[in-house]
Amino acid sequence: MVKITFPDGSVREYEQGVTGYQIAESISPALARDVVSCGVNGVTTELNRPINEDATIALYKFGDDEGKHTFWHTSAHLLAEALQELYPGIQFGFGPAIENGFFYDVMLANGQSISENDFPKIEEKMRELAKKDEPVVRRNVTKADAVKEFTADGQEYKVEHIVEDLEDGTISTYTQGRFTDLCRGPHLVSTGAIKAIKITSVAGAFWRGDAKRDQLTRIYGITFPKKKMLDEYLVMLEEAKKRDHRKIGKEMELFMFSERVGKGLPIWLPKGTQVRLRLQEILRKIQRPYGYQEVITPGIGGKSLYITSGHYAHYGKDSFQPIHTPEEDEEYMLKPMNCPHHCEIYSHKPRSYKDLPMRISEFGTVFRYEKSGELHGLTRVRTFTQDDAHIFVRPEQVKAEFEDVIDIILKVFRTFGFEDYEAQISLRDPKDKEKYIGDDDVWEESENAIKEACAEKGINARIEIGEAAFYGPKLDFMIKDAIGRRWQLGTIQVDYNLPQRFKLEYTAEDNSKRTPVMIHRAPFGSLERFTAVLIEHTAGHFPLWLTPDQVAILPISEKFNDYARQVKTYFDEQDIRSYIDDRNEKIGRKIRDNELRRTPYMLIVGEKEAAENSVSMRKQGGGEQASMPMEEFAKRILAEVAEQLGKLD
């Protein structure tokens, strides 16, 4: 018998060799019908794998992240199986599950191509194969046999992957029908659970992400166990298109990109700059009671700075290349991180235990070289500004300070209406320690500090092995927006390593020299990404205190432009942000255009309003309409802003 421990701590005994499916069936037939994979000792695996020793188990449905990953991983193989039948001679690259669905990179033979017109036939072939309910069979193979098998099938990319990346004794394949793929798994037991299928897009992708290698065709898709789920997803996609921050940002004139300036380098326009500055001010207000000292550091640094920090070794290939000056052997780098600069600020004079915690904050602009194909509006750029801070503390202060940062992040979320969020503790992968710097005891201490802080704050955080930063574990917050999409925003990281690398120290009470601990934190993550998420969450309808233009003044004709200017002058005195739309257009066109600009209030002014010193108010979205003296309207706006900002205190 083996003892199986469930997530709630309960324990049941089963015969050795029991499978995840049998365990689910022993609990309830309904659960067995819904479960798609299981976690055994923290590792996601197939439901038909035997369990031969005592273990912990979690049973995953499609609604769980692990369940979705299993479902979409098998769906990627189903896509490949369909493509193999439809396009003879096709070669396969990689085909992983992703956050929303899956993709497969393929090289088509004989001048073949795939376009949107081909999506229906691919979907139909996938449905045909899924209906066969083909079993997905795992097989462990030697490296020699894997090379032989995939060479015989003409799969050059798979062979290269086997030869260059895989070690003998770690290689497995999965077969369904007439398709065999090189894969670690996990997978569904069979394909029959895949009921609803949609191919979503096609794009180009370089083999291994290298622009010097072959360009493959990348086919994206998504699947569900029920048609209703697919229908709901497609509705969400349509809503997401309407909320696309690139589209709304253009309509609201918030930001732009220029090919001459360079790819992935956003330019903040005047209205977007107003939004950005208000975001900075609100964070300053939130963190003011916690004693942060704001600094400004250069946008470049000597290469040796990043060698010392370890960033050059770990991120050098993903950064802009060193800048060479006329001085021999003098090299600088565009700043990829703010933390090394803040370490230098800490070390510029002696520190005592009385100086700690020391909290340094900066809206610091950094530079990372993202590949062209990965750039996306404000969410993936080559330069961005982090709402960064680094807190230097004594070891015994870590947990309390960490909890204060959690409070700041959750207040930011409440401020902007992000009520639905998840937390994730990212730990080091103990099986791959070469990816990280620092001693085992240091990692254990910092990981425990995060777990204890979350427990004391009542945060039920998910544990992710292998997702830590190279210098320390972290706590990440994922929010759900208005249409249910997940975004990673706030982050907190505990770092015992950088202070050691920079030889930072403080004088303790016993006059000994000790090394501080460093906490990294960014509640927004970056101003660019946060703005993009906020645009899509609100569909551009920012709260009144944040929106760049609070009021649009629309004169009915040019005869009333002078009165419109009189109204604007009064609003300027009241610190109300307004503009005049004095174009020679009909009032209906002006209303439509300003609806598109998402201005919260429109004031129509004509003969009656000019005579009565009043305004005719129209609220964004065709809502409330009313006439009132302009002084009364100004009081209304100021009261609404005061109420919103009052909730932030």
TrEMBL record:
Top EC class of this enzyme: ligase
GO biological process per UniProt: threonyl-tRNA aminoacylation
Cofactor, how bound (note): Binds 1 zinc ion per subunit.
GO molecular function: ATP binding; metal ion binding; threonine-tRNA ligase activity; tRNA binding
Record InterPro entries: aa-tRNA-synt_IIb, aa-tRNA-synth_II, aa-tRNA-synth_II/BPL/LPL, Anticodon-bd, Anticodon-bd_dom_sf, Beta-grasp_dom_sf, TGS, TGS-like
Assigned GO CC terms: cytoplasm
Domain Aminoacyl-transfer RNA synthetases class-II family profile per the UniProt entry, residue ranges: 244-555
Catalytic activity field: tRNA(Thr) + L-threonine + ATP = L-threonyl-tRNA(Thr) + AMP + diphosphate + H(+)
UniProtKB keywords: Aminoacyl-tRNA synthetase, ATP-binding, Cytoplasm, Ligase, Metal-binding, Nucleotide-binding, Protein biosynthesis, RNA-binding, tRNA-binding, Zinc
CDD domains assigned: TGS_ThrRS, ThrRS_anticodon, ThrRS_core
The keyword Oxidoreductase is assigned to this record: no
Domain of life: Bacteria
Documented EC number(s): 6.1.1.3
Keyword Iron-sulfur in record: no
Residue ranges of every copy of the TGS domain listed in the record: 1-61
Chief location: cytoplasm
Location(s) in or outside the cell: Cytoplasm
Listed cofactors: Zn(2+)
Binding site for Zn(2+): C339, H390, H520
Gene3D superfamilies associated with the record: 3.10.20.30, 3.30.54.20, Anticodon-binding domain, Bira Bifunctional Protein, Domain 2, Threonyl-trna Synthetase, Chain A, domain 2
Protein family per UniProt: Belongs to the class-II aminoacyl-tRNA synthetase family.
Subunit note: Homodimer.
Alphabetized PANTHER family for the sequence: THREONINE--TRNA LIGASE, CHLOROPLASTIC_MITOCHONDRIAL 2, THREONINE-TRNA LIGASE
Name of the protein in its database record: Threonine--tRNA ligase
Species the sequence originates in: Prevotella micans F0438
Lineage of the species this protein comes from: Bacteria, Pseudomonadati, Bacteroidota, Bacteroidia, Bacteroidales
Gene that specifies this protein: thrS
